[in-house]
């Protein structure tokens, strides 16, 4: 049986993406053979070592699954609900495995979202070094002018750093598409606000060259091998 780092074992088991799994370990939420382990590098063998998360979830070898969802409004990207919020993962009640969203879309954002138990894949997509472009469709309340486009292209300061979109295109008088790589919290909303555009609807339409095609709102399907290739192609 394969020996691997504890953080990777948690990610492979679909507990969380690698960095989040490291946080869980640092927070003392993970026991190996009855003892709390605080170092993510600790080597373990899944199936042989008894790995327990939050005293509840036993880490066992699992088949990896990833789904593509057309996220509807009103659902949040979290694995725990506060105040009776609706969770994206509740839409996957038929799936027997523990899933999580790959990155986040805001509650009022719709569109392409990946949901998985594959921590490695999630990490490859959300890691800043991945360079994958995520494309968003914006419907705004205003007629988009060249000044709006210029301001959008100039970017905005987020977390004390200037963040610029990879591309901006006007597609109709009040519709735009914006491609971004970084994926900072509320990045597109902040860019629109700084450009003095009043955003009415935000939808993610692409990750890499993977699109929703005809997937209806609220529906999901399993990600194919071809889809996976699209995630990492034409993404620079
Ligand atoms: N940027 C945002 O502002 N919100 C999202 O949901 C995604 C990107």
Corresponding CATH superfamily of the largest domain:
Pseudouridine synthase I, catalytic domain, N-terminal subdomain
pLDDT average, as an integer? 93
Global structural class: alpha+beta
Our estimate of the beta-strand percent is 25-35%
CATH class of the largest domain: Alpha Beta
Q: Tell me the overall shape.
A: elongated
Structure annotation, total helices: 6
Give unreliable regions as ranges.
none
Number of strands: 19
Heterogens: uracil
Describe this structure in words.
- The protein has three domains: 3-58, Roll (Structural Genomics Hypothetical 15.5 Kd Protein In mrcA-pckA Intergenic Region, Chain A), CATH 3.10.290; 66-128 and 210-232, 2-Layer Sandwich (Alpha-Beta Plaits), CATH 3.30.70.580; 133-207, Alpha-Beta Plaits, CATH 3.30.70.
- The chain has helices at residues 6-12, 18-26, 119-126, 146-154, 187-194, 225-231; strands at 3-5, 30-32, 35-36, 43-45, 51-53, 57-58, 66-71, 75-76, 86-87, 100-101, 110-116, 134-140, 156-158, 161-163, 167-172, 175-180, 199-207, 210-211, 220-222.
- The mean pLDDT is 93.
- By secondary structure, it is α+β, with helices and mostly antiparallel strands.
- It has six helices and 19 strands.
- Helix 1 (6-12) crosses helix 2 (18-26).
- Strands 7, 10, 11, 12, 15, 16, 17, 18 and 19 form a nine-stranded mixed beta sheet that branches. A four-stranded antiparallel beta sheet has the order 3-2-5-6, with no helix packed on it.
- It is 20% helix and 31% strand.
- The longest helix has 9 residues, at 18-26.
- Strand 2 and strand 3 form a beta hairpin.
- It is elongated and about 60 Å long.
- The two termini are 37 Å apart.
- Bound molecules: uracil.
- Residues 105-106, 109, 186-189, 202 line the site of uracil.
